[in-house]
Write a structure and sequence with these properties.
By secondary structure, the chain is mostly helical. The protein has 11 helices and 7 strands. The strands form 3 sheets. Strands 1-2-5 form a 3-stranded parallel beta sheet, with helices on both faces. A two-stranded antiparallel sheet has the order 3-4. A hairpin with a 4-residue loop joins strand 3 and strand 4. Helix 3 crosses helix 5, helix 8 packs across helix 9 and helix 9 runs antiparallel to helix 10. The radius of gyration is 23 Å and the shape is globular.
Length: 231
Amino acid sequence: MKILFMGTPEFAVPSLNALLGAGHTVCGVFTQPDKPKNRGMKLLPSPVKVCALSHEIPVFQPAKMRDGEALGYLRELDPEYYRIVDLNNPARVVRALEVCLQTGRPYSEQRTKPRRERNFRILKIGTDVPRAELYGRIDRRVDEMLAEGLEVEARRLYPYKHLNALQTVGYKELFAYFDGRCSRDEAVELIKRNTRRYAKRQLTWFRRDPEIFWTPPGDTDKIIAYIDGTL
């Protein structure tokens, strides 16, 4: 398997070595830029970079995945996809870089598919819940999740808190509580606050879609009238 590895600290090195030891091909490593350390403030490479270079693996060191250097890698490897991709979406940039480095071919050449004809229409209907009601539902849902064992689940996952997949609302606040950086009550309030903020961002994103028909919750007659008048 060909893999694009991302990591910086010492604890990421065993994972990289394990992949190499299992026979996988690591076609590139993304790690943080060299940083000044010690009294002389000499620039020192990250542990992952040292490991990668010892195995002659190409190393990429953008300050951020949105910065010019990271985007420059994509522009060089696949100028066609660079022209059309949302450059503010690091997940798509990383995905394109993964494919380019793993296959040795531009991502744009591999994603072209004939447009499929659909024998149906799509109607988008959004439920416009008043903000106060929505936030109240979020707060109650967080309380329910805690009552159903969210804290127990988070404690079980605590040894893996460094993984990106666990840097999500609900886990990260409880990890902070386990670390002693806040009280349990503060962690619960942070979960509620961050969930409300996430919901607000989701609404902002959906409201950009002019095809969505917004309606109050439970207004079945209005929804049916919209469907009948559109089809």
